[in-house]
Amino acid sequence: MSAKSTHLPFPGVQHGKRIIISVIEQRARDEPNSSWISIPVDEGKVCEGYRDITFKQLNDAANHAAQWLLHNLPPSSRSFQCFAYAGPKDLRYPILALAAGKLQKKLILPNLSMMPENHAHVLRKAECEVYLSTKHVANDIKAALEHAPEIQYMDAPSLDDLFRDTEPIAIEYTKPWDDAKDDPWLVFHSSGTTGPPKPITHTFRMVANLEAPASLPDVAESHIHQYANKRWYTHLPTLHYVGMVTVLFIPPFVNMTAILPPPDQSPENVAKILRYARADGAICTPLLLSQMLSFTDGAEALKSLEYVHYAGAPLARHLGNQIISDTKLAPLIGCTESGHHFTETRPDDKEDWDYFKFQPHAGVEFEHRADDFYEMV
């Protein structure tokens, strides 16, 4: 896997049939200095520049976390013991996810905005046994656990504990693709707007589907092609599926470096981040794009990018037209239940940039319902 390659598929790589835990461990072993993410040198002054965290540092932190889990989680009679984590929006989310995978455990990532009874409902449905968290949100979690007293609460390890300099005892993932592809790993949940929220379990095969387009024959350019070997800014939180995609899934698969923001995510600060972190692309909400286009430095920062992807809502036509005059613009579509939907990015289409065109390999069909209405199936 060459860091200098700019085209997919990568030589000798079977995209779409790799266990992501093994991919990360291989990157840590064979390319220890390759970049996983980039974070500010000083969170209060992004103009001081960004520093990269390597895949070796990620894997070491995950090994420290896995050892902590081995020593602290209670014994379980269940295959793929499930534990939960919720806390500050920091790197413990991807690190604990990787550690859970190494140990063949499931990690559920609850959204703390749920009502306590819905929170407890999701935990029980996922067969969660232990809840890890921090003092910052402990009261919210303990309120939920009043409705599920059988679930044990524990304080999670600190980031300093996970990124300590001592060499960890390595825990390597050894299951091959055919044996592990359908193993459960990460549990997200539905929003609960149409009833109690439901846990949604993602397997290693579902995660690997993200990179499958890289090796499909005669495939049109998709988002994964634009991520390969590039530095992408993302401000999407990793407690959600899409945030985990941009921070933990895509970087090891296609050599992307995820650029993460400090707590100050104001449009003015994001404009500085794109400059000082040397971003090639940005994944943003339409609201952030609208705010950045409202002042000169923000508009210039977007103009300097090669790519802009947006998700979460439609982007106003006049705003998208401003962006696409200088950079390649594409919408993202997907859902927690099935993951990212396989669409074309159409980088040369300056007119219909706000439409989705599904790849033939996606298996999407539109069935006529009435008049000019069709249902995607």
Structure description:
This protein is an alpha/beta fold and 377 residues long. It folds into two domains: 20-33 and 55-206, ANL, N-terminal domain (Rossmann fold, 3-Layer(aba) Sandwich), CATH 3.40.50; 218-376, Rossmann fold, CATH 3.40.50. Helix content is 33%, strand content 19%. The chain has 14 helices and 17 strands. The strands form four sheets. The protein has a seven-stranded mixed sheet, sandwiched between helices. The chain has a six-stranded mixed sheet with strand order 6-5-3-4-7-8, with helices on both faces. Strands 14-15 form a two-stranded antiparallel sheet. Strand 12 (307-310), helix 14 (317-324) and strand 13 (328-331) form a beta-alpha-beta unit. Helix 1 crosses helix 2 (55-72), helix 2 packs across helix 3 (92-102) and helix 4 packs across helix 5. The radius of gyration is 21 Å and the shape is globular. The model is unreliable at 1-6 (pLDDT under 50).
Give the helices and strands, then pairings.
Blueprint lengths: L19 H11 L4 E6 L9 E5 H18 L9 E4 L6 H11 L3 E3 L7 H10 L2 E6 L4 H8 L6 E4 L3 H4 L14 H4 L3 E6 L9 E5 H5 L14 H5 L3 E4 L6 H14 L2 E3 L7 H10 L4 E4 L1 H7 L3 H8 L3 E4 L6 H8 L3 E4 L2 E2 L3 E2 L25 E5 L2 E4 L1
Parallel strand pairs: 1-10, 3-4, 3-5, 4-7, 5-6, 9-10, 9-11, 11-12, 12-13
Antiparallel strand pairs: 1-2, 7-8, 14-15, 16-17
Helix pairs in contact: 1-2, 2-3, 4-5, 11-12, 11-13
